[in-house]
Specification:
Layout (H helix, E strand, L loop, with lengths): L1 H12 L2 H30 L2 H8 L2 H4 L2 E2 L1 H9 L3 E7 L5 E6 L4 E5 L16 H8 L2 E5 L6 H34 L3 H6 L14 H15 L1 H6 L7 E5 L6 H11 L3 E6 L10 H15 L3 E6 L14 H19 L7 E7 L17 E4 L5 H14 L8 H6 L6 H17 L7 H13 L12 H20 L4 E6 L6 E8 L9 H22 L7 H16 L22 H28 L1 H14 L1 E3 H8 L21 E6 L11
Parallel strand pairs: 1-4, 2-5, 6-9, 6-10, 7-8, 8-9
Antiparallel strand pairs: 2-3, 3-4, 11-12, 11-13, 12-14
Bound molecules: adenosine-5'-diphosphate (ADP).
C-alpha cells in the first residue's frame, strides 16, 4: 500500500511522465488497429482459393515435388489451381483436381509469370487446360525459422545500438579517466629528498609540507591552515618531478602524476569530469601527493569571450581544480604539487591562500652540486674511475641535472657501442662535447687539408697558451676535432666563484680571445676566417669595458649606457671605438710577447694536437707549463667557478665552406 502511495506521489511530482507513457501507448494501439483493418480489407478482395493457400501454406509446402512432375500434371490436365508466391521468386504451389496439394521450385518463375522456364506460357496453358492461376502471399519459412528471423530483426539493431553505446561509454571513460587507468596512476614511491642533489631551499620548504602530511591532526588541533598547493617553478630537468615524488616518498604518501594536457579531452565537459575523477582518486588514496606537471597548460583563464569554446572549456577546468582545492576538508590529507617553467602563465586566482600559495623555486645546480651529480650518475654506470668530477662540473656550467644524467647515459651508450667494458673519462668528455657543441664529430673532419689542420692546431694552442699564461682561466681541454659549427675548441673555465669580473681578468680574457689569431700570425704569417668569431666577441667585450664597465680613461666614471640618446653624438661613439681599439691592440701586444716567449711550448702543443687531436688532464697541464710562479696564488678548488665555459671555437663561416680560408 505504502509502495503504491509512493508511486502515486512520484508520478504526481513528475506529471509529464504518465502523460508521455499514455500518449505512446495510444499511438501503438492506433497503429496495431490500423494494421488489422488493412489486413481485413486486403483479404476481402482475395478469392477463397487464394485465402486457402495463404492461411495454411504448410499443406502445400510439406509436399515438395520436382518441376517435371508439375509439368507432367499440367500436361495431363490434372491441375486445378497454380499459385505463384509473391516475394519468393521460383516458389510454385499447386492443387490437383483430386484435391492433392503440392509445391515445386521453378527457378526463373516470378509472381508475374514463368517465361523462359519449363512452365513457359503458363497463362495460355491455364486458359487451355482450364486451371486457375493466382498470385498468393505465402511465407515458405517454418514457424521456428520465422520466429528466429523475427527475433533477429529485433535483436540485430539492438546489438548495433548496444555496441555503439558500449563503445561510447568506454570512450567517455577513457576521456574522463574514470576507468582503470586512473587507479593505476597511483603509486607509493621510494624516492627521498636525499635522491635529489642541491635545491636545499626547495627541500626545506617541502619538508614543511612533509611535516603536515605526516601528522595533519597536529596542525588542525592548533587551527593552523594546512598547505594545500605547492607551485614548483624552475627550468625543465631541474628535478620538479623528482622532488614531488620525494615529497610523497618522505611522507609515506601515494603519488599520482598527470600533466596539464591530461585534462584536455575531445568531448566538451570531459575535462571537468577528469578533474573531478582525479581529485576523487587522490582523496581515496590519501595521504596523497597529486602532481600536475606543466600546469601552465591549463594555468591561465581567458577573459570575456576571447578564444571560443576551447578557451571556455579550459576556464571550466581551472575553475573545477580551484573548486576541488577549496573543497578540501581540514583532515583531507591531499597536497597538490604543480610544476611549471612559465610562472607568468599561472592564473592569479590559483595563487590565492588555500590554493597554490607555497611557491618553491628550483634552480640549476652550482659547481659543487654538478660534481656531486656526476658522482651520483657515474656510480650508476660501470665507470673505470678515471673521471674527475670537479673538472667535469667546471666544464658543464648551466647544465641541469637531467642534462648531466643524459650526458652520463650517452657516455655509457657510446662505451657500449665501442665494445668497451668500462665507461672512461674520455667517453664522458666526448658526451659533454656533443651536448655543448650540438653534434657528433662532423664529417667535415675528412675534408680538412693538412695545412688547415696545422692552422687549427696553432689556433687552439694559441688560445690555450694565452688563456693559461694571462690567468684568464683554467684550460680544461683542447681539441681539433670538428663538431657542429666548430672546427676546434679550447675549453676554459673561470677560476673564481666571484660573480664580478676584475679589470685584469677582463684584460686577460681579451688577450685569450685574440690568442688563436695571433698564433696563426706568428707561425704561419697569415690569418684565417676561422678567427672571425673570436674578433667579434673580443670587440664586444672591449666596447663594453669602455662603454659601460667604467674601464675607460676618456670617460672616467661616466657610463656611455647612462648618457641620454640626445647627447650621444658621433664624437662619443668615435671615442668609445678608439679606446676599445686601443684595448684590443694592447691585448694583441700581450699575446705577441707571450707567444714569442713560449714559442717552444706552442710548437709542442700544436704538434701534440696534430697527432692526438685532443689534449687534456695532466698532459695538457704539463704542456702549458707551471704558471703558479707567475701568479700570486693558485686557485683553490672552492674558488673554481660555476661561470659559463668559454668555448673558444675556431669556427667555419658557413656550411658550404668547411675549411677556414686565410
Ligand atoms: P623536471 O620535472 O624539473 O622537468 P625531472 O624531475 O623530471 O625534472 O628530472 C628529470 C631527471 O633528471 C630525473 O629523473 C633525475 O634523473 C634527474 N634529476 C633532476 N633533478 C635532479 C636532482 N636534483 N638530483 C639528481 N637527479 C636529478
Amino acid at each position: 500500500m505504502n509502495a503504491l502511495k509512493k508511486l502515486v506521489k512520484r508520478l504526481r511530482a513528475h506529471s509529464r511522465v504518465p502523460v508521455a507513457v499514455v500518449s505512446v501507448m495510444l499511438v501503438i494501439a492506433g497503429v496495431v488497429l490500423l494494421a488489422q483493418e488493412a489486413t481485413r480489407e486486403t483479404n476481402a478482395r482475395k478469392s477463397p482459393e487464394m485465402l486457402a493457400f495463404e492461411q495454411s501454406p504448410d499443406a502445400w509446402l510439406q509436399n515438395q515435388r520436382n518441376v517435371s512432375q508439375l509439368v507432367k500434371a499440367i500436361d495431363a490436365g490434372q491441375v486445378a489451381t497454380v499459385a505463384l508466391a509473391n516475394g519468393h521468386p521460383g516458389l510454385v504451389l499447386y492443387t490437383l483436381k483430386n484435391g492433392a496439394k503440392a509445391s515445386a521450385t521453378v527457378p526463373g518463375c516470378t509472381p508475374i509469370g514463368c517465361a523462359g522456364t519449363a512452365l513457359d506460357k503458363l497463362a495460355e496453358r491455364s486458359a487451355a487446360q482450364g486451371f486457375a492461376l493466382v498470385g498468393v502471399d505465402v511465407d515458405p519459412r517454418t514457424k521456428s525459422q520465422h520466429l528466429l528471423d523475427a527475433l533477429g530483426a529485433i535483436v540485430s539493431p539492438l546489438l548495433v545500438i548496444l555496441t555503439m553505446g558500449v563503445g561510447f561509454f568506454v570512450l567517455m571513460r577513457m576521456q574522463t579517466g574514470m576507468g582503470g587507468g586512473a587507479s593505476t596512476l597511483s603509486e607509493r614511491p621510494e624516492t627521498t629528498f636525499a635522491d635529489a642533489i642541491g635545491n636545499d631551499e626547495a627541500k626545506a620548504a617541502l619538508n614543511r609540507v612533509k611535516a603536515f602530511m605526516s601528522d595533519p591532526s597536529a596542525y588542525v588541533k592548533l587551527g593552523a591552515s594546512a598547505p594545500r598547493g605547492v607551485l614548483l617553478v624552475g627550468p625543465p630537468g631541474t628535478g620538479k618531478t623528482l622532488l614531488a615524488r620525494a615529497l610523497a616518498g618522505e611522507s609515506k604518501a601515494n603519488f599520482i602524476a598527470v600533466d596539464g594536457s591530461y585534462f584536455t579531452a575531445t568531448y566538451y565537459g570531459a575535462g571537468v569530469a577528469k578533474v573531478k575523477a582525479l581529485f576523487k582518486q587522490a582523496r581515496k588514496h590519501a595521504p596523497c601527493v597529486l602532481f600536475i606537471d606543466e600546469v601552465d597548460g591549463i594555468g591561465k583563464r581567458s577573459r570575456g569571450n576571447e578564444g571560443g569554446g576551447a578557451e571556455s572549456e579550459m576556464n571550466r577546468i581551472i575553475n573545477r581544480v580551484l573548486v576541488e582545492m577549496d573543497g578540501f576538508e581540514p583532515m583531507d590529507n591531499v597536497v597538490v604539487v604543480a610544476a611549471t617553467n612559465h610562472e607568468n602563465n599561472i592564473d592569479e586566482a590559483m595563487r590565492r591562500p588555500g590554493r597554490f600559495d607555497m611557491l618553491v623555486r628550483l634552480v640549476k645546480p652550482t659547481l659543487p652540486e654538478r660534481a656531486r651529480l656526476f658522482d651520483l650518475y657515474m656510480d650508476k654506470v660501470a665507470a673505470d674511475g678515471s673521471h674527475d668530477s670537479a673538472a667535469l662540473a667546471r666544464m658543464t656550467p648551466g647544465l641541469t641535472p637531467a642534462e648531466i644524467a643524459n650526458i652520463v647515459n650517452k657516455a655509457a651508450s657510446s662505451a657500449a657501442e665501442a665494445g668497451a667494458d668500462k665507461v672512461t673519462s674520455e667517453h664522458v668528455l666526448r658526451a659533454i662535447e656533443t651536448q655543448l657543441l650540438g653534434g657528433e664529430i662532423s664529417p667535415v673532419k675528412d675534408l680538412l687539408t693538412e695545412g688547415t689542420r696545422v692552422r687549427l692546431a696553432y689556433h687552439e694552442a694559441g688560445h690555450a697558451m694565452i688563456g693559461h699564461w694571462t690567468g684568464a682561466g683554467l684550460v680544461e681541454r683542447v681539441t681539433i676535432e670538428p663538431r657542429g659549427q666548430a672546427l676546434g675548441v679550447t675549453y676554459m673555465t673561470r677560476d673564481t666563484e666571484d660573480p664580478l669580473y676584475k679589470q685584469n681578468e677582463l684584460v686577460s680574457r681579451l688577450a685569450m680571445m685574440l690568442g688563436g689569431r695571433e698564433a696563426e700570425l706568428l707561425v704561419l704569417d697569415s690569418v684565417s676566417s676561422g678567427a672571425s668569431d673570436d674578433l667579434k666577441r673580443a670587440s664586444e667585450l672591449a666596447i663594453e669595458m669602455v662603454g659601460s664597465l667604467g674601464f675607460s680613461e676618456t670617460f672616467g666614471l661616466l657610463s656611455v649606457g647612462g648618457i641620454p640618446d640626445k647627447l650621444l653624438g658621433p664624437d662619443i661613439q668615435a671615442a668609445v671605438l678608439r679606446e676599445a681599439r686601443t684595448l684590443l691592440e694592447q691585448a694583441q701586444e700581450t699575446c705577441r710577447t707571450l707567444l714569442k716567449a713560449q714559442r717552444q711550448r706552442l710548437d709542442a702543443m700544436a704538434r701534440a694536437l696534430l697527432t692526438r687531436e685532443v689534449l687534456q688532464g695532466d698532459e695538457l697541464k704539463q704542456m702549458l707549463g707551471d704558471v703558479s710562479e707567475g701568479r700570486k696564488a693558485a686557485p683553490t678548488p672552492a674558488q673554481i667557478a660555476a661561470a659559463p665555459v668559454l668555448e673558444l671555437a675556431f669556427t667555419r663561416r658557413d656550411d658550404s665552406s668547411p675549411s677556414p680560408k686565410p
